Amino acid sequence: MFDSVRFRLTLWYLAVLALVLIAFSTGIYALLAQSLYNRLDSTLRNEARALAAAHERQISEGRNASEAAVMVQEERFFPRQATAIFDAEGQLVSEKPTRSGKHARLPPLNLLQGEDTYFYTVLEEEDGGRDGRRIAVKRVPEVNGQTYIFAVSQPLDRVAEELQSMRHILYIAVPLALALAGFGGWFLARRSLAPVVAMSDQARRIGAENLQERLPLANARDELGKLAATFNELLTRLEASFKQQRRFMADASHELRTPLFVIRTATDVTLSREHRDEGEYRDAIKIASEQTHRLTRIVEDMFTLARADAGSRTLDESDFYLDELVNEAARAATVLAESKGINLDLANSAELPCHGDEGLLRQMLMNLLGNAIKHTPRGGTISLSVERLNGQYEITVADTGTGIPLEAQPHIFERFFRADSARSRTDTDGGGAGLGLAIARWIAEVHKGRLNLLRSDETGTTFRAGIPAPPQ
Fold first, then answer.
1. How many other CB atoms are there within 10 angstroms of residue 213's CB atom?
2. CATH class (in words) of the domain with range 314-468
3. Are 189 and 14 in contact (CB under 8 A)?
4. d(CA 319, CA 444)
5. How remote is the C-alpha of 217 from its chain's centroid?
6. In whole angstroms, what is the distance from residue 127 CA to residue 75 CA?
7. Which residues of the chain form CATH 3.30.450.20?
8. What CATH number belongs to 5-168?
9. Which of 47, 90, 91 is nearest to 72 (CA)?
10. Contact at 8 Å (CB) between 461 and 403?
């Protein structure tokens, strides 16, 4: 439980809330304490002023300082307050303590500056506890030319009681708020993470045999919904990859089985009789040789694609001229084209400096030309051109063959895909394994380029490969 996200979220939530509540409570307590002390100081200040005004009025009526002080003390009756009147040297003129015998004390005279009211707090022992008192002292010059000091004190018990009540409220409210928030946070975290638990349970049930299943998607607009959608997209890609792998294995097994079956049949028929003439043996060996070459080509293409998928096929990059590479590929393809009565036209081009893997690009060209020769009937024409357009070298291979069926065009770059329905190949039909276009597209993409089918109809087919050109 302590390792769960719900527990950690709740703990973090409580920690942050606790800091906020402590800071808020401290602020409220400090503001209340300041307000109570300010109110008490204001009361004491007013009382000191009133005491000084009454004393001055008594003196102005002709009474001496001592008589005036006594009459002032008798006039005022505040049982919780202690008052005292001192002369300029700090000698007591008159005082009136509280019923409990608390006096208004005078601080050191050097602390009294001008006529401002001076406040200070004293702590006195009372009934085994500490009873604090707040004292206000004011120096006032009067009409008789004398200066008197008036002191008023009041206990802090009521302020302390109100602050204590506030502390008790906070001691109860803050833990209660944290408990309620913790319970609510745990409930909300559990409710919020319920889709994650459901996704986890569903993901645990998904395997290679049921990749078609998907995670539940409650709300596609929130973060968890986006996570589930992303995971479902990953499952879709994995499902497609598994299907492609299974299809690849099935097609590869079929493609490898056909030449092996032809070799075994030819050898078994040849060996079925003890004595055969030399021509029959040569025919059997010729069939085995042709099928062995076909097997070699299939295995090499499969190995190339496997290395490409694994990312272990690195480019052997060098500087060369693309126009010379195109001319070489055209000369090599012309031999095969002429043997089938096909004309191959090569458009002239200027020097085209290029940087890349020359061997792979030659293989891409030969795959495209071989595919065009294979699907162009006798008397047809194949056109090959290369030019620089918008920072790209555009290589175009067009033929006048019968074209690719419309329903087959989206799949022509898939491995082992062939537009015809015949899945068995012999040495006489010149058919391939359906890997040439897949390898050609991979070569273009690994050079940060592209290979696309521009058009294909009853008049012919056109492929175009684009690879980045170096800056001029």
1. 13
2. alpha beta
3. no
4. 17
5. 20
6. 30
7. 5-168
8. 3.30.450.20
9. 47
10. yes
9 CB-side CA count, 13 A: 14
**The domain over range 197-312 is classified in CATH as 3.30.420.270:** no
Give me the tens of pLDDT residue by residue for the chain, a chain 472 residues long: 556 777 888 888 889 999 999 999 999 999 999 999 999 999 999 988 888 888 888 887 777 777 788 888 777 767 788 888 888 888 888 888 887 778 888 888 877 877 788 888 887 654 444 568 889 998 888 766 788 888 999 888 888 889 999 999 999 999 999 999 888 888 888 877 777 778 888 888 887 777 788 888 777 777 778 888 888 888 888 888 787 777 777 767 766 777 787 888 888 877 787 777 778 778 888 888 878 887 887 787 777 777 776 666 678 889 999 999 999 999 989 988 988 899 999 988 888 999 999 989 998 999 899 889 988 999 999 999 999 988 899 999 999 988 888 888 888 888 777 665 433 344 444 445 677 888 899 899 999 999 999 999 989 999 999 999 988 7
Sequence-distant contacts of 67-70: CB under 8 A, at least 24 apart = 69/93, 69/94, 70/94
Q: Which residue in this structure is represented by tokens 């191959």? A: 344
Sign of the dihedral through C-alpha 267, 271, 272, 273: positive
Q: Which residues contact 429 (CB under 8 A, 6 or more apart)?
A: none
Q: Is the pTM of this model over 0.85?
A: no
